[in-house]
Amino acid sequence: MKYLDEFRDPAAARVLVEHIKRRATRTWTIMEVCGGQTHSIIRNGIDQLLGGAVEFIHGPGCPVCVTPLEMIDRALEIASRDNVIFCSFGDMLRVPGSTQDLFGVRASGGDVRIVYSPLDATQIAADNPDKDVVFFGVGFETTAPANAMSVVHAQRLGLKNFFLLVSHVLVPPAMTAILSSPTNRVQGFLGAGHVCTVMGTSEYGPLVEKFGVPIVVSGFEPLDLLEGVRQLVDLLEDGKVELRNAYPRAVNDAGNVVAQQVLNDVFVVTDRAWRGIGMIPKSGWTLAPRWAAFDAEKKFGVGHMHVQESADCRSGEVLQGLLKPNECPAFGKSCTPRSPLGATMVSSEGACAAYYQFRRLDLAHV
Question: Which ranges of the sequence are coiled-coil (predicted)?
């Protein structure tokens, strides 16, 4: 398949692996901030191929995983109410809240539906004018434009029964928090290509300058990732601090300007809590005042809900790159995809799920 097979060529991969291992004079610590990249690295064994040259630490790149427990509980509260149709992408339904998940609400009679687009939810609202329809808007900058457009579309249709529960988070502030931490180990970042497709690369230059850490924007196929790592290792070995784009077929400096205009109209930047990490200033979006009529938190009065994270789940350390998933004592034991303690085990992009699925179980006894 074009744009897939040519980026999975084993011979080309071996050339890149050999270059990286030959070039590296030490083990460099690199963080990817994208769950899709994490799964590709683990699924294709890139971490094992580059052992001794590169240590990958997995950042907070899974939006499902960083959605705070209190937001899940707000979703559960809304979805449990009579007269509500609660819509979400499928990956949110098994994320555990304080007492249950959205599948549990559906099993108890709640009208919880999986949709493939937020515009599906607006259609459900149009078809059910006697019901309040809520879409769970979760994600990084990648999914935000479509979620923003659902509100615009609902206004154009004159819908009074469509609402958005917003839990959008932004990548650069999270990278800032990681780099500012006294426990930071990151020496180079792989930038998330899909985020940069929307937002461009301009937000990353100031991080490179402020923290003196190179960033290389990368895609998701094996050769994309290996080329990103190659450029990072070359920069690190040469002592150069630069921002580079190793994903030019999808990313440019400006990004998608039309999508950015929609985001600037519908959302405003806000402080946002990240599951397992805590509050990161100016790290998320919420609906702008002119769109407040579509705000599910205000409509259903759940904004006050705050809960404590489980002390048994160490996903916060995983999300900050301080702990490998299989170094957690609960990994593969009390925490499995069937009985997850945290979202990193149940999400399709979670690091713990990747380690479990692709059998990185060797340290599970720790």
Answer: none
